[in-house]
Amino acid sequence: MCGIVGYIGKQKAAPILLDGIKSLEYRGYDSAGISVINNQGGVAEAQVEKAVGKVINLENKIKSRELLGGLGIIHTRWATHGGATEANAHPHSDCAGNIWLVHNGIIENYKELKNELISAGHQFKSETDTEVVAHLIEEQVKSLKSKVQSYALEDAVRLALKKVRGAYALAIIDKREPEKLVAVRNSSPLILGIGNDEYLVASDASAVVKHTRKVIYFNDGEMAILTPDNHRVVNLENQAVDSQPQELDWTVESAQKGGYPHFMLKEIFEQPEAVENCLRGRLVVQEGTAKLGGLESIKDKLREIKRIHISACGTAYLAGKVGEYMLEEYAGIPVEVDLASELRYRKPVFDNHDAVLVISQSGETADTLASVKEAKEKGILTLGIVNTVGSSIARETEAGIYQHIGPEIGVASTKAFTSQVAVLALLTLFLGRQRQMSLVTGERIARELQRLPELIRKVLQSEDLIKQIAVKYQTHNNFLYLGRKYNLPIAYEGALKLKEISYIHAEGYGAGEMKHGPIAMIDQNLPSVVIVPSDSVYEKTVSNIEEIRARRGPVIAIATEGNEDIKSLADDVIYIPKSLEMLTPILSAVPLQLFAYHVGVLRGLDVDKPRNLAKSVTVE
Ligand code: F6R
To answer: Can you identify the CATH homologous superfamily of domain 461-607?
Structure first.
């Protein structure tokens, strides 16, 4: 949660910071703030502005001000400690207003630190955990000054952070050192962009890519000391760290809307290409298997795996639920799927031949990351399916598979979900062929995977129809989503999409489980979205539709092309092409994404930034 950007260089910092923070607004958007060091005429001054609400409010506020300096920091907030007020908005400062910093993460021991600092005479202006860091640095500056003739900001930062427990990505400036930006990371994402005579630090690459594609991913406990023409990376013991820059594989266009009204719609329509990208070079059709570079080094270990624990949050968890069906049916490996927030606290029974597989688009979700750490602690093999290269989870897991779908910026996960399921299908092929899966079965799955992008394109052609259905049902305040087997997780996912985008109450349920309770709610005012492809549970699901119809409940069916019978059972039908049963979730998820999108837009909501949410949930 929260996005931070820092800039130091020969250009004016403010426009670059504003532009950068806009691309990070998906991380939080309840308030924003900027601090720029203006060093005109040898007198350095910190120019600070804050605004409640989205970044546009901050932008409007600073329009009339001249922010001239080439050094600055900016922040967009998702509140944890203290409400969304100007006082709580970052940047925060020390008592004297010399040191300014922006923070993403949580300082866990902030209460005890705050009490100590208050006893030492510090005055706090906000309710945030972050502010303690500014005062701690101030305290260390005082102490260094009393001991040595000259000190540097980075020394005070290092000493201050030794007292801090928690997660942080910090960008720090001090008007007494107007040619320096210090950035440091522990458990929260931070990236350094290296330009020509300029540097940017940011929570993710989308804020950097316009200026440079040469980046350094920080490890925990690493700190960068930046001047306009030099950078140095050290650890918290002040030892130099040899961080080699890498080339970003993102383009500027991938982080922009490209003519679509919303990122969410763009990303829904990017799904054929996203799935293509995550399959590229990985299918070996004639051998009926997948070639997964990230798993090559542990191929033999994987042959010995007897059970997989999948751990993830939200939509990624639901991708894991589809993976459970695939891996059990085709690879014959028992699978347990856990919400990461549960796995980290319950006492899972691990065996030496188990593996923990985490799934995370951002690679930064706190609970998912914690479940990796928990498994590592117990000596269990950890695997990851991750989109963001260089993210914490990508680095913590022993081996893994990247999604390669470019940035997902809309807060609701769409292309990340379908490609996570596609990667799980690749993994099923890979592990299945190591075990009982025949060449013929492997080939059939591989061929069908190859067709997927084309099939998704076909589903997307139904957008107009889906929009009409959204118009018809937009005023309903409750929905039931039903599915069975491979499409049960899609019922949950469809309901989740509608909830988060439209704020409409929607419940995902097993179609076969409906009569054990929720059927009591069914009447003409409760529409049910039923996922009923022509698969092994088709007839069972049709019986469930009959049960709804008998109680006059409206039905929207997601069915397989060519199924004319369904028209007499459902009020509205959206068709998806025929595919292998295990791959239908990738197709059936798409109309549900479009339905949620259009209902949200019709209700006048900000579908890219739904209220109360943030894209990357880096707090528990
Ligand atoms: C829902 C959604 C969330 C995420 C969840 C995990 O549309 O986007 O439920 O799926 O927060 O995020 P990652 O995949 O980044 O770990």
So the answer is: Glucose-6-phosphate isomerase like protein; domain 1 (3.40.50.10490)
